[in-house]
């Protein structure tokens, strides 16, 4: 590494210097306005050249003067990661090992604890534990701050370094120290690492007339798993399903193409999502194809503050087209797209390259999806401060809805009295939530009751569908 570490940088500087010289040579032979533009560009390039020299100077000082010898590769990778993480909360550098782990994860199998995390104030912040993993079983909750790993503070670690420390061989143990909002003292948890093979789609019939599907993430298996779930439940019910509850609560997202396919499963036409990049020619749009895997059944989508990214794409598309009623609490609000760009021999960078927009043209960046019907999970949630969301993260991208006109959503047009039957919060004395007992899941029970009332009041789908 030592003999080659500076060559790529020098080549880049050489290009900058050559371009600067070319710009200066053009000066005497062009019209004055262009001279001004060239001068400004040349000054900018000269400043970039000086800053690259500054980086080289600091790098050499660190190599020569730091109290202990440093590894050149580690120092440069840390500098690259610092540059990317300084842009927004979701851009980062992945070394070769981290990139390989990410590829394994998107295929639906990876090692560790099963937690989707971000970083806040130097600590590791839990976005959501993944269903049926060591983290979920131990009681890790969205919003938890992991402050120590095996007694050592995570302060000073990059997010990737902290994640790597949480990974390890199956059967090995790790001690987490967690600071939880509302808890008076830190919480200590001892977890055993497992090979994480999350069941991305869990499903069951509720009373033989309502199909329930929970998607825990969006990886390469999600769309196929959803299709299998819907097909299986239709057969199990004898084609007597009245509706589908699609549960996206605490689903932290994943692959954009899977979000598009899942939304397309319920739509027969129209836009699903669009992205707008820095350059107009890089913007994209995805449209639905004919075919609805539910047979045009009523759909309720459950969301909460842990529903992020790909989950919000699906919920936003179905809400904008009035294909589903969104029920629950406001989602996380991550409306940006990250592109993974491999660097041959050196891992990859994850770079925010675009914002995404729902079919109506609204960005949910920092805002989230507001449910059509608000239903709280607990009575305490009504008085508690909102859990942190995208807008609370440092350097979060701004929302740009004010730069273009966003039309209001079409009305719900529900049968009279159906929406009013939904209760906003559990009654006094309601049992505490127990994941093994669906009857204690207040939001789910309200969604099921709403679907049945909706179907009873409107047994046939509108002909305009």
Task: Characterise this structure.
InterPro entries: ClpP/crotonase-like_dom_sf, CtpA/B_N, PDZ, PDZ_6, PDZ_sf, Peptidase_S41A, Tail-specific_protease. It comes from Roseomonas marmotae. Keywords: Hydrolase, Protease, Serine protease. The chain contains 10 helices and 19 strands. 31% of the residues lie in helices and 21% in strands. α1 packs antiparallel against α2 (32-65) and α8 (256-266) runs parallel beside α9 (310-320). Residues 1-31 have low confidence and may be disordered. Strands 3, 4, 5, 6, 7 and 8 form a 6-stranded antiparallel beta sheet that branches. The protein has a 6-stranded mixed beta sheet with strand order 10-11-12-15-16-19, sandwiched between helices. It is globular and about 75 Å long. With 465 residues, the protein is an alpha+beta fold.
